[in-house]
Amino acid sequence: MLRRLPTPLAVALAACIGGSLATRVSDTSPSPAPDVLDCARGQLKALGFTESSYDSDRLRVTARKFDETQRRPDTQFRRMVDRLAIEVGPASDGAVTAITVDASTFAEMTTQRGPTEVQEKASDAARSAAQTILQKCSQPVDSLSVPG
């Protein structure tokens, strides 16, 4: 005989089953926000990502990287796409700048309606790239190495 789960238990169970597909990492930097964003943009290029949008007013940048090496037995599968969304802003607790990097991965499919993306758990490459950007750009800018 099956019994219905109490509503609060069902909600709690559903919340545990889900889980986040994207990975968010954050840190602070003693450098000014525009310098941190410039650092992040430079790291994107070094890591092989291509910028897809840049907002200089809100200090945000998004980028993507295609992975053509993965194969799947699905005839609609085309490639994997790693995406990074970087946001820089004022920080609290004595730091000058806060930097947040969201890493996500999508499987790109070819359907009759055109390209479709299905979000999956963030790949190791996307998470590693997010950590690298955070590590490199949360350090203070060396004024001796800056030209001018």
Describe what this molecule looks like in 3D.
There is one protein chain. By secondary structure, this protein is an alpha+beta fold. Strands 1, 2, 3, 4, 5 and 6 form a six-stranded antiparallel β-sheet that branches. It has a domain at 20-92 and 101-122. Helix 2 (33-46) crosses helix 3 (124-137). It is 26% helix and 39% strand.
Briefly say what this structure is:
By secondary structure, the chain is of the alpha+beta class.
What would you call the shape?
A: elongated
Mean pLDDT: 84
Task: List the uncertain runs.
Answer: 9-14
Oligomeric state of the chains? Answer: single chain
Helix segment count? 3
Query: What class, by secondary structure content?
Result: alpha+beta
Rg, Å, rounded: 20 Å
Sheet having the most strands: 6 strands, antiparallel
Q: SSE order in H/E notation?
A: HEHEEEEEH
Into which percentage range does the β-strand content fall?
Answer: 35-45%
| N-end to C-end Cα span | 78 Å
Tell me the helix content. 25-40%
Number of strands: 6
